[in-house]
Fold:
Amino acid sequence: MKQNIYDNNTFFRKYEEIRSRENNYNNLLEQPNFFTLLPPVKNKVILDIGCGMGDFAAYCIGQGAKSVTGIDISSNMIAHAKKRHVHECLTFEQCAFEDLTVPNGTIDFISSSLAFHYIADFQLLIKKIRTALSEGGILLFSLEHPIVTANKENENWVTDQEGNILHFAVDNYHNEGLRTQNWLVDNVVMYHRTMSTILNTLIENGLQIEKILEPIPTEEAVSKLPSLKKEFRRPSFLIIRASKS
Amino acid sequence: MKQNIYDNNTFFRKYEEIRSRENNYNNLLEQPNFFTLLPPVKNKVILDIGCGMGDFAAYCIGQGAKSVTGIDISSNMIAHAKKRHVHECLTFEQCAFEDLTVPNGTIDFISSSLAFHYIADFQLLIKKIRTALSEGGILLFSLEHPIVTANKENENWVTDQEGNILHFAVDNYHNEGLRTQNWLVDNVVMYHRTMSTILNTLIENGLQIEKILEPIPTEEAVSKLPSLKKEFRRPSFLIIRASKS
Structure:
């Protein structure tokens, strides 16, 4: 199933509104941590899966990448990306990863920020990534943490009657697969996978785990967005860097 | 801090009672999964950390291991191990891992079942393991899952008024370190570490992650011990195999 929630106009408008705020979870938590694991991009051939509005792809061009291809299933996203960023070495394509064809062993670095939890067939995804990567090539991706996705269909922060948070509710951890949530619009579909499934799929496809992050916010980030304090109680994101050996 | 709870006689008596039951979490869940990741042991030099009553060490001898050393901080355990298993290639030693000295690069396989969460300095532990392992040597260990240890000081299964389980409570995930719990006796001390700390410590010490298990019980196991059904809701254990590269 190829979900294209970002072409739901209500969703997209609300999403744009959140992302336009300077202080959001992406800018203050996920992106700063993602960047700490970035490999050298100079002269590299790069593919960004779920490129959104293309800012990361354009950043890599600015850092001297040889070429960057950004793909996204959403025509809304690709239209924005093409409008925002123009460069001869930069290509944006509306394309589901499932339909992507890339010559084997040609990509030095594959990046993906918060997109893999929308993809149903993780095994196929990682297999295609392995095939596309050059020897020694790097995969860097972030996704929603399994602790969070396990119980996605329910409200997971449990509070007392005064609204104070008591704890985070985990359930159905080993029941992998489809989850729906109401984020911006009703019934956004995503996929829960366990930590072991995620890591073993990489390893079984010849990708060596180099680093795992479960980001925590800096003091400065918490001062800008106090709700980030909750991140110490359970992680929202998982960021993994792996290399083809 | 070197905890030696197994030399608390009340604890040890209760522990023996649980382990003597055929249907416990170790026999039905942790051990069968642990064994699926066992490397070939024939002609290997093996160290078992937290060897308990020595059954695993003796099993390896039975499988043709060259030599097996079992260490445990508990004199109770070592006394039992020595009584239960005698073989010229089998050594049991009462010893905290912190005090262990092993010639560098001499151990082919280091195993440890449900002991590492009692050890305060994980960084030192893994560093010593890396030094002790031969090139290509294997580390296989199990420990309590970070989802479980995060909130260990509290009752983590949340139930409704009829006692039906609603979910599992996670909290304090990023607050690593000491936890106390009341398991068999009051105030058993253990250490919570995040998934990323555990995995990155291995990687940073030159150990390559080969496989991760978050065990789920078989149908047969659930029929023998119905409480194992809860394991589908959140994992109790984490089992990791890594190799020195």
In short: The longest strand of chain A covers residues 133-144. Residues 9-20 of chain A form the longest helix (12 residues). The mean pLDDT of chain A is 92. Chain A has one domain: 5-145+194-244.
